[in-house]
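sry for the spam today, last one i promise. C-alpha cells for design, 364 residues
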C-alpha cells in the first residue's frame, strides 16, 4: 500500500512553483532591460520621473515595478512601494507613504509627499484600481499635489481593464496623459531572444503562434518555451506537453481574462465543434455555435466579439472562428480522457463494441 507523504508533496509543489516564478521573473526582467534600459537608468538617477507601466494581466508589470523599486532603494532607502489594490481609503494611503497625523487629512498627505521631493520615489502597483476605489475627488487632489510638488512616481496599470479606461485613458480623468507610458508586451524578437537564452530553435511561424497564444502572459510564454524540444516539427507538441504537465494554466488563462460562464460555454462548444466535427483549421461559424448551444445567434455574435478582444478566439476567413490553440489542446485532452474513461467502463461491462467506439474517439 502506497502512503502519500502530504507534507513532502506540498513542499515539492511549493519548490516547483517558486522555481517557475523565478524563471518568469527573470524572463520579463531580461526583456525589459533589453528594451527599456534608458528608462531604468532614468528611474535610478532621476527622482522626478513619471512613468506608467501598462500591459495585460500577468505580463510581469508588478515584477518589473518591484525590481525598479529595489534598484532605486540602493541609493534612496526611503523610497516607498504601495500595493494599490489594497488601498481602499485615503487613511491607508497616508499610512503607506509614512504619514502620521491622520487628523489633518489631505493636508498631512500633501505634507508627507513634500518629504519625497529630491529624496525618494513613490512606486504604486495597480494604480488604476487604487484610483477607482478612492474616487474622482481624491484622484484630482492627488494629481494636483504630485504636479505641484514635482515628485517622482512610477505606477502600473492593467490595459483594457474597466479601471484603466475610467481613470487613465478617459480624457476627462485627472491623470489623462500625465505619465510617460511604457507598454509591457512581447513580440517575435522577444520570443526569439528567450528561445536563444534557452538554447532552443523555433521558426518565425511558431514564434508568431506563441505571441498569439500568450496574450503577453509571461507565464504561458515560459511554459511553452520550457516544453519545446528542438526535434519538434511545430509548437503543437510543446502545447500538448505543457498542458499535460500543468493543466491549471489554461484555467488560469481563462480566469485572467474574466470570462463569464456563458463565454466559457461558447469557447468549449467551439472547441468541441473543431475536434469532433473535424473542421480542422477552418473553424466554425456563429450559426454552428448557436445551433450547438441553443443560444440566440446575436447573443453568440456579441460574446464572440468580446472573446476576440480577449485573445481567446480569432476570426478566420469566410466568417469562421477558431479558438486559442492553448485552450483547444486543453479541451482535446479533456475529451480524450472522457472517451477513455467511458471506454474503460463499457469494457468492464463487456460491451466491447461500444467500448471500441469510445477508444477510437479517444485516439482521433
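last one done:
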Amino acid at each position: 500500500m502506497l502512503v502519500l507523504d502530504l507534507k513532502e508533496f506540498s513542499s515539492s509543489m511549493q519548490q516547483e512553483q517558486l522555481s517557475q516564478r523565478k524563471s518568469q521573473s527573470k524572463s520579463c526582467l531580461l526583456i525589459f532591460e533589453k528594451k527599456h534600459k534608458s528608462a531604468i537608468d532614468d528611474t535610478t538617477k532621476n527622482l522626478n520621473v513619471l512613468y506608467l507601466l501598462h500591459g495585460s494581466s500577468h505580463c510581469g508589470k508588478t515584477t518589473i515595478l518591484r525590481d525598479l523599486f529595489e534598484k532605486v532603494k540602493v541609493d534612496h532607502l526611503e523610497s516607498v512601494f504601495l500595493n494599490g489594490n489594497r488601498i481602499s481609503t485615503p487613511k491607508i494611503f497616508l499610512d503607506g507613504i509614512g504619514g502620521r497625523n491622520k487628523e489633518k487629512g489631505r493636508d498631512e498627505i500633501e505634507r508627507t509627499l513634500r518629504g519625497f521631493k529630491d529624496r525618494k520615489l513613490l512606486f504604486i502597483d495597480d494604480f488604476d484600481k487604487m484610483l477607482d476605489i478612492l474616487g474622482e475627488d481624491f484622484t484630482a487632489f492627488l494629481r494636483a499635489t504630485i504636479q505641484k510638488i514635482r515628485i517622482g512616481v512610477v505606477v502600473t496599470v492593467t490595459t483594457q481593464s474597466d479601471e484603466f479606461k475610467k481613470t487613465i485613458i478617459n480624457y476627462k480623468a485627472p491623470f489623462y496623459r500625465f505619465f510617460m507610458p511604457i507598454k509591457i508586451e512581447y513580440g517575435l524578437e522577444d520570443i526569439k531572444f528567450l528561445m536563444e537564452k534557452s538554447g532552443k530553435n523555433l521558426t518565425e511561424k511558431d514564434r508568431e503562434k506563441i505571441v498569439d497564444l500568450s496574450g503577453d502572459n509571461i507565464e504561458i510564454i515560459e511554459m511553452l518555451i520550457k516544453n519545446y524540444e528542438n526535434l519538434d516539427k511545430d509548437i503543437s507538441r510543446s502545447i500538448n506537453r505543457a498542458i499535460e504537465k500543468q493543466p491549471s494554466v489554461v484555467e488560469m488563462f481563462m480566469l485572467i481574462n474574466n470570462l463569464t460562464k456563458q463565454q466559457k460555454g461558447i469557447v468549449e462548444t467551439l472547441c468541441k465543434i473543431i475536434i469532433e466535427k473535424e473542421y480542422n483549421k477552418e473553424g466554425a461559424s456563429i450559426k454552428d455555435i448557436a445551433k450547438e448551444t441553443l443560444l440566440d445567434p446575436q447573443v453568440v455574435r456579441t460574446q464572440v466579439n468580446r472573446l476576440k478582444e480577449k485573445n481567446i478566439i480569432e476570426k478566420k476567413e469566410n466568417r469562421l472562428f477558431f479558438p486559442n490553440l492553448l485552450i483547444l489542446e486543453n479541451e482535446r485532452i479533456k475529451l480524450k480522457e472522457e472517451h477513455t474513461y467511458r471506454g474503460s467502463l463499457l469494457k468492464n461491462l463487456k460491451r466491447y463494441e461500444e467500448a471500441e467506439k469510445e477508444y477510437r474517439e479517444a485516439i482521433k
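Confidence is low (pLDDT under 50) at residues 1-18. ok im logging off now
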